[in-house]
Amino acid sequence: MKYKILLAGLLFCASVCTAQAQQASTKKPLTHAVYDSWKSIAGDSLSNNGQYLLFAVNPQEGDGVLHLRNLSQNTSKQFPRGQKQAFTADNRFAIFQIEPAYASVRQAKLKKKKPEEMPKDSLSIHELASGKTEYVDRVKSYKLPSKSGEWLAYQLETPLPQKAAKDTSKTKTTSPAKPAGRGAGKKDDGTGLVLRHLPTGQEYRFDRVTDYLFSEKGNTLYFVKAEKDSLHKAGVFAFNTSARRAMPVDTGRVSYKNLATDKSGEQLAFVASNDSTGKDLRYFQLLHWTAKNNRLKTLADTASKGMPAKYMVSEHAQLGFSENGDRLFFGTFPRPTQYEKDTTKLDEEKVNVDVWTYRDPLIQPMQLKQLEREQKRSFLAVYDLKRNRIVQLATPEIPDVSLNPDRNADVALGSSNVNYLLSVGYDSPSRSDAWLIDLKDGSRRLAVKDTRGRPRLSPEGKFLYWYEPSDSSWKAMNVKAKVPVNLTQKLNVAFYDEQNDVPALPDDYGLTGWTKDDAYLLVNDRYDIWRLDPNGKAAAVNITDGYGRKNNLRFRYQDLDPRERTVPVDQKILLRTLDLKTKASGYFTDYVTKAGQPQKLVLEPYSFSSVRKAKDSDRLTFRRGSFQEYPDVWVTNTSFSNPQKVSNANPQQSGYLWGTVELVEWTSNDAIPLEGLLFKPENFDPKKKYPMLVYFYERNAETLHNYRTPAPSASTINIPLFVSQGYLVFVPDIVYKDGYPGQSAYNSIIPGVQMLAAKGFVDEKNMAIQGQSWGGYQVAYLITQSNLFKAAMAGAPVSNMTSAYGGIRWESGMSRQFQYERTQSRIGGTLWEKPMQYIENSPLFYAPKVETPLLIMHNDNDGAVPWYQGIELFMALRRLNKPVWMLVYNGEAHNLMQRKNRKDLSVRMSQFFDHYLKGAPEPAWMKKGVPSLVKGKEYGLELIEEPAATTPAPGQEPETHSASEEK
C-alpha cells in the first residue's frame, strides 16, 4: 500500500512540476512594446464615512478607468476615462470628470482642429445610493465646498461654433447643460457657470463667468463676470445658497481678480481696477465686502493711510483671511519706473546686452531666470479689520514673511538673505537673517543673525524654531524672549545626518511636528522621535523609548488627518517604520506623552506608502508593493487587521518573465561595509553565467522592496526590462571621501562587481555600466581607470571639472561652483585651491586610457549639466579613434521629458548593450550613423546582420578582460 501512495505522490509531484515548467515556458520577456499597457494608480480617496473608495487606473498612454468601490457591500463600478474625482462631504455623491478618448484627441490633432474644437472633458455626477449617473458635456472645471455636500458648481467650456457641433465628444449625456453667454471670443470673456443643488437637481446658471469660489461651508458661491457690453458690465456676485438668490457685490470696473473668503463665508475680498489703458502697469484697489450688511469698502489703494509711499496694491498676490476673520492679508509693491517706448528706432537698431558686474547681488543668468517672478513680486501687508489700519510687513530688505498656520498670531516671521546674495552659488547651506514682526504696528526685531538654518513659527506662533547646521542642534526661541534655547546639545544623540559624505554641514533627520498649544516640539534622530520642551526647562524624552536604535528601526510620524496642524497627544499615533538592516517596512503605534515602547502593527518585506484615513471612520487605505508586486490599493482599519487588496492594476505581469531582487553586501577598498541590490532573472540558475549591467547613483539599498514599472527611460536603464531579457542588474551603494569622488566611486563599485563575479554566475567578459548625471560622471571616470567593462553608457556626464566648475546651471541660472565646493561633486575647495583634484577627478584628462565603447546622451537644452561637457568627452574620444556615440535630443532637458524620445532612447540603449554583451547585430545608427540629411526621416534602428559584435573592440582583447585585472 505504501508503494502505491509513494507512486501516487511521485506522479502528483511530476504533474505539478510539469505544469509549473509549462507555465514558466509560456511567459514572455518584456519588450519595449509593453510599456503602454503598464498601468499606475492615482487619486485613491475614501468617502468621509469610509464606505466608498475611488481610484483611477491609468495606462502610460491611452485611456484610463476610474474605479468606484462600495467597501461595505464589496461591489465595484468602472467609469472609462474618469479623473479629477472627489466625494461630496455628505457621502451621497461622487463627482468626476471624463476625459475625451485618447484616439479622438489624437485624430483631432491630426486634423489640426482649433483649440475650442478639440474634444473636451465631460462631468459625471454619480449618486452613490441609487447608482444613477448624469453626464454634462464640455465642462472645464468643477468645485465642491469642503464642508457641505449639497452644492456643486461647474464651469462650461466655450460653446462650439454651430458648424462644428458635430465634432463634440460622443460621451453619453443625460440632461446636458446648455452653456449660456457668448460664443468664442476674447480670452477673458468668460463662460457659463452652473450651480447645482445635488439633492434636488435644481440648477442656477450664470453667463460670462471668469472665476468662482465656494465658501468652506457652502453657504455662499462667489463669482466674477466679464463685461459683455455697456448694459452687461463686469462684476463680482454672491449667491446665497440658503436664500437661493444672487446679489451683486460690485459691478462696472474693468478687471476683478483674486477672490478670497473667510472661514464663515460672510466676508469677501478681491482686487479690482478701473484702468482700461492696456498698459503693463495697472492700478488696483483692495476691496472688502460683508454679507451681513451688504457693504463694499475700499481697504487699500495708492492713497490709503498706512500704504508706504509710492507703493501699489498687487494684482498677483494671493489674498487670505486669518482664521478668526479679523485680518486680511494682501500684497503691495513699490511703483516701478515707467519707460516710454522708443519709436525713433527700428527693432534692429536697438541694442540687447546683458551687463555682468561683480557688484551684482545675483549673477545675470539668475536675474534673467527670476525676471518674471521679480516682475510679479509683492510684499506682504495686512489690513486689520478691527482697527481699520494697514500694516506693511515685508519690504525689499526683508522680502519673505511667513505666518503661523491659522494666521491668528500677533507675530510674523521675516526672513532675508539680502546681505548674503553675493555668496549664492558657492556658499552652502546658504545664510539668512530672521526677524520677528509685530502684526499690530509692523515693528520688527532681529531674532537670528547669520543662520544656515530655516527658522519657522510654531503653530500657535509662540515660538521661533529651527535646526542650526553650524552646531548640528535644534533651537527654539519664545517670541517674547530674546535668547534662543539649544534643545539638543546635552543629548548624547546625533540629530544630524551621520551618513553625510559631502564637504558641507550635514542636514537634520527631519521634524515630526508640534503638539497642541505649542507644548512640545517633536524631532527625529536617525532612528527615534524625541519630545522637546521649547522653553528648554523640562528634560527631553525619547517617545519611542529608544526602541528604534536598539532594533535598527527608523520611526517617522504618519499623519492621518491633513486638517490637523499638530500631533495628537491624547491618542495613539501611527509611525511609518523601516528596518534599516533588512529594508522591511510597515507601521507601529505609540503615544507622545505615555511611556512605553512602540507596538508593532505590521512589518513585512514590502514597501508601504500612501496611507489615507476616512474622516469619520476607522477605515483607511494604503499601498503595498515590492519588486515583484505592483503597489496596489489595500483597505484595512487603524489596527491594520484583516487588510484586503482592492485593486489589481497590472494583472498582465503574470504573463511576463520578471525576476527577483536581493540585498548583497561587500567591503569597499576603503574597508567600509557596503550594501547593494542584485536583480536576477526569473528561474535564475546559479550554474549558468549571465551578462550583467551595473547601474549606480549614490545609495539605493533602501529601495530593495520598491516596485519598478516597465516604462520608457528618461535617462537610465529600465531594470525590469533588462532582467526579463536575461541580464543581471547590480545597483551598488557608494560612499565618498571629500576631494576624491571618482576614486570613491571606484573603491565602492569595483569591489562589489568583483565580489559578484567570484560567485560564478556572472559572465565577467560581458559586463557593462550605466548612469545618468552624477551617475554618468562616475561611468565616465570608471572607464578611465578600468577595463573591467565591455561597454558603458553615460547620461549627461561631467567630463571636465575645470570647465564645469565655472559653468552655469541654466535651468536656475546659478553658478555651478557650489556643487564642487560643498555638495555632490565633493571636491571641497575652489579650482585655484585644489587644481590637481579637479584635474585628477576629470575623465577628460585620461581619455587616452579609455578602451571601453561608450554611449553618451547629452541634450542641447540640459539645464543642470551644460551639454558641452558631453561634447568635450565625445570630441576627445573621437580624436583618439575610440568607439563613442552621442545622442542629443533636440530641445530636451537633463532627463528626457517627451515620451517619444524616451521610447527612442530605450530602444537604442537595448541595442547598444545587446550588441556588446549578447553579440546581437549592430544597429545602423551605431554602424553607419544617421546623417543630418535624413534626420527625422530615418532613425537607424534597423539591425545590420553581420557578426560585428564578435570582433573585439579596439584595444580590448578577450584574454586580458577579467574581474581581477585593473589599470
UniProtKB/TrEMBL annotation:
It comes from the Bacteria. Residues 162-192, 945-967 are annotated as: Disordered. Residues 1-21 form the signal peptide. GO terms for molecular function: hydrolase activity. Residues 958-967 have a biased composition (Basic and acidic residues). The keyword Flavoprotein does not apply. The keyword Signal applies. Its EC number is 3.4.-.-. Gene3D superfamilies: alpha/beta hydrolase. This is Alpha/beta hydrolase family protein.
